[in-house]
Specification:
The chain is of the alpha/beta class and 334 residues long. The chain is built from 13 helices and 8 strands. Strands 3-2-1-4-5-6-7-8 form an 8-stranded mixed β-sheet, sandwiched between helices. Strand 4, helix 6 and strand 5 form a beta-alpha-beta unit. The chain binds acetoacetyl-coenzyme A and nicotinamide-adenine-dinucleotide (NAD).
Length: 334
């Protein structure tokens, strides 16, 4: 029953095994974060080439963070015996940084060990059945309600009764995804931002039936990943995308109606409002398919024409110009 499930559900510190489904831009970053925080990670994708790309990008990202001493501060690492005794087995990466504040050589070695340790925690798998042991599953597949619901039906059948099922959806109703399962109290939105290892926010969305226990466990797990949490009610696009996507859409309208060149639109917003990327560059970075899907959810769900996607965005997606991940979007990438 639902109450049995809640009683036996893992708390944040007990979340030891995390399943991540979808090894694209977001899933790979989410798997990396969970591994760096000390969890065993099972990473699944329908496309085996995506898994190969994910492992390469996770290794590269961890190496970049390790070189700067920015791996998660909380995880522990067992060090080989030739390390100085002050940072013997079981010490945390933070201990090492504190023990050798001025010795970059040792600190770098310790971060390197933590990085290798994190990679070893990630196991690529090929079927949903492989996620049986997960305490928490985070889904980051295509932004399509029908496809996500089908996955939640399968997950509900194969995961242990206590498992929490989270979606990284950018806009889709958590209540509706939860309704595909027999455990709606254990379904929640856990919305990461791109690139997950760098962006400091997780937006948590409670569905109509998400329990207080599940919300508390996911909130403290997010904090364990080093993120700041905000909480949104279950409205289309939640908080951030409800505000961001109309901005991106307006930039497409400006381009479509000939207000300015793409470069001037982006430079205007970068230098005029101090955004790290212009809106068209950001749309390419997110994926134009994701932007279009989110705008359609906003338009259908909120019923206001101001969310209607610009025809130019629709045309780019129809043409397969999905942004940086495909090498071409508003811009071309070499
Ligand atoms: N892993 C590890 N390190 C990374 C990294 C990754 N995946 N990506 C970037 N970095 C590091 C780089 O190594 C670099 O470090 P140093 O400064 O120490 O050299 C630093 O981050 C900056 O990177 P770059 O120099 O390559 O480029 P940049 O200065 O333009 O920063 C960026 C890149 C962090 C992505 C920045 O451009 C940015 O913040 N852009 C906006 C991103 C944003 O708005 N994301 C949210 C999108 S909306 C969303 O995600 C929700 C949705 O549902 C659609
Ligand atoms: P992506 O296209 O980079 O990756 C999606 C991956 O999911 C692909 O590798 C694909 O092979 C795999 N996949 C699709 N259907 C599958 C299935 N049924 N089973 C297993 N694997 C499947 O997409 P992304 O940008 O990583 O986005 C993934 C999710 O995260 C979407 O819901 C999106 O809205 C959300 N999101 C995206 C961003 C962003 O900036 N791109 C930010 C936050 C949230």
């Amino acid at each position: 029953t639902a109450s049995f499930r809640e009683e036996s559900m893992a708390t944040a510190s007990e979340i030891a095994a995390v399943g991540v489904i979808g090894a694209g831009q977001m899933g790979s970053g989410i798997a990396q974060l969970a591994a760096a925080a000390g969890c065993a990670v099972l990473l699944l994708d329908a496309d085996s080439a995506a898994l190969t790309r994910a492992v390469a990008s996770i290794s590269a990202s961890l190496r970049r963070l390790a070189a700067k001493g920015q791996l998660s501060q909380v995880r522990r690492v067992d060090l080989p015996s030739y390390y100085p005794t002050q940072i013997g087995p079981g010490h945390s990466v933070k201990d090492a940084a504190e023990a050798f504040p001025s010795d970059k050589f040792w600190v770098r070695l310790v971060f390197q060990a933590a990085c290798e340790d994190s990679i070893k925690r990630i196991r690529c798998v090929s079927t949903v059945q492989d996620l049986r042991e997960a305490d928490l599953v985070i889904e980051a597949i295509v932004e399509n309600e029908h496809v996500k619901k089908k996955l939640f039906v399968e997950l509900d059948k194969i995961t242990k009764p206590s498992a929490i099922l989270a979606s990284n959806t950018s806009s889709i109703s958590i209540t509706r995804l939860a309704s595909a399962t027999k455990r709606p109290s254990q379904v929640i939105g856990m919305h990461f931002f791109n690139p997950p290892p760098i962006m400091r926010l997780i937006e948590i969305i409670r569905g109509a039936d998400t329990s207080d226990e599940v919300f508390a466990a996911v909130k403290s797990f997010s904090e364990r990943l080093g993120k700041t949490v905000i909480c949104s009610q279950d409205y289309p696009g939640f908080i951030v995308n409800r505000i961001l996507m109309p901005l991106i859409n307006e930039a497409f309208w400006a381009l479509y109606t000939g207000v300015a060149t793409k470069e001037d639109i982006d430079t205007g917003m970068k230098l005029g409002t101090n955004h790290p990327m212009g809106p068209l560059q950001l749309a390419d970075f997110i994926g134009l398919d994701v932007c279009l899907s989110v705008l359609r959810v906003l338009h259908n769900g909120l019923g206001d024409n101001k969310y209607s996607p610009c025809p130019l965005l629709v045309q780019y997606v129809d043409a397969g110009r999905l942004g940086k991940k495909r090498g071409v979007g508003v811009y071309s990438y070499g």
